[in-house]
Design brief:
mainly alpha; 302 residues; 0% strand; single chain
Length: 302
């Protein structure tokens, strides 16, 4: 924050000085200044007012231009600080920073706010009521990010994630009904950024969820779709490995689901390998800690 304020201070120190110089130059030079000296006295008042209006107009243009540069600078600086806090695992500080910009029109800020809201909802210290509010808020921020920039891959990714989270509050029928929409957003995100390992992982999660779907959920799906979506553990495994190839060791949960999928396929040797990696993954977030716990429980059960 100190770096942000110092940079803003430097910008403001430059801004007024430049504006003052331009106004002085406009007031003393050029045709307007010389013309008033040869006009008849009866017209002097009108010319002075006209010149004043012109200067006000020019000042307005300069101020607007300065404000646009300042706003652009500010957005870039906030994004840089937000990414630093995210990388440092500062969930609460990150949310406090980004929620100030919830009315922004910048898709990059909005999808980061959606992610931050969701991360805060996942904290064990967050109350059930606040978690629900944050979950719905995160979907709105992701939706707004998409409205501002449909070609932003991260907006598609986080919209799909947040839509899935909201389904936890609206029942299994809604969650299954949203499944196709969720997958479409994940697929669109991969189209826009084929190297994003997280989105590839999420398609793997989608496949895993449908592969293990119990019979009563399949019956619900059959009432919602003419051809209900299906998948297999083999397909899920393929996506998890694709994600790992795109960015090795990028996400504790991908390691966990590689282990879980191999367990579903009765390959205990490979399950032990990936579950051990998940257990040993450095915990930076609450989710990482939950992954470590689940991995340890599964290892002890084998």
């Amino acid at each position: 924050m100190a770096a942000l304020m110092a940079a803003l201070a430097r910008l403001f120190r430059r801004g007024p000085a430049g504006l003052g110089t331009a106004l002085r130059r406009e007031a003393t030079g050029g045709p307007c200044g010389r013309g008033t000296q040869v006009l008849r006295k009866s017209l002097e008042r009108g010319v002075v007012l006209s010149t004043g209006s012109f200067l006000v107009y020019e000042a307005h243009k300069l101020i607007c231009g300065f404000a646009e540069v300042h706003a652009s600078f500010k957005v870039e600086d906030v994004i840089e600080q937000a990414d630093y806090l995210y990388g440092s695992g500062e969930t609460e500080k990150l949310y406090r920073l980004l929620v100030q910009y919830k009315n922004s029109d910048d898709a990059e800020l909005l999808w980061r706010l959606a992610r931050s809201s969701r991360d805060l909802a996942q904290l064990g210290s967050t109350s059930a009521e606040e978690k629900k509010k944050l979950t719905y808020d995160s979907l709105e921020y992701a939706k707004k990010a998409l409205e501002k920039n449909e070609s932003n891959f991260a907006a598609h990714k986080w919209y799909g994630i947040c839509l899935s989270d909201v389904g936890d509050y609206e029942g299994i029928k809604t969650k299954i009904g949203n499944a196709i929409i969720i997958k479409e957003h994940f697929q669109r995100a991969v189209e826009l950024n084929p190297k994003d390992a997280t989105t590839i992982h999420l398609i793997g999660i989608w496949c895993y969820s449908f592969a293990e779907m119990p019979w009563y959920q399949r019956k619900i799906a059959a009432t919602l779709f003419a051809t209900p979506p299906t998948s297999t553990f083999q397909e899920a495994l393929r996506y998890f490995h694709m994600a790992e190839e795109a960015d090795p060791n990028f996400y504790s949960k991908n390691l966990l689901f590689l282990g879980k999928t191999y367990l579903k396929l009765n390959n205990k040797k490979m399950a032990l390998l990936w579950l051990s990696k998940a257990k040993e993954y450095p915990a930076q977030t609450e989710e990482d800690k939950q992954v470590q716990k689940e991995a340890l429980e599964l290892l002890n059960s084998i």
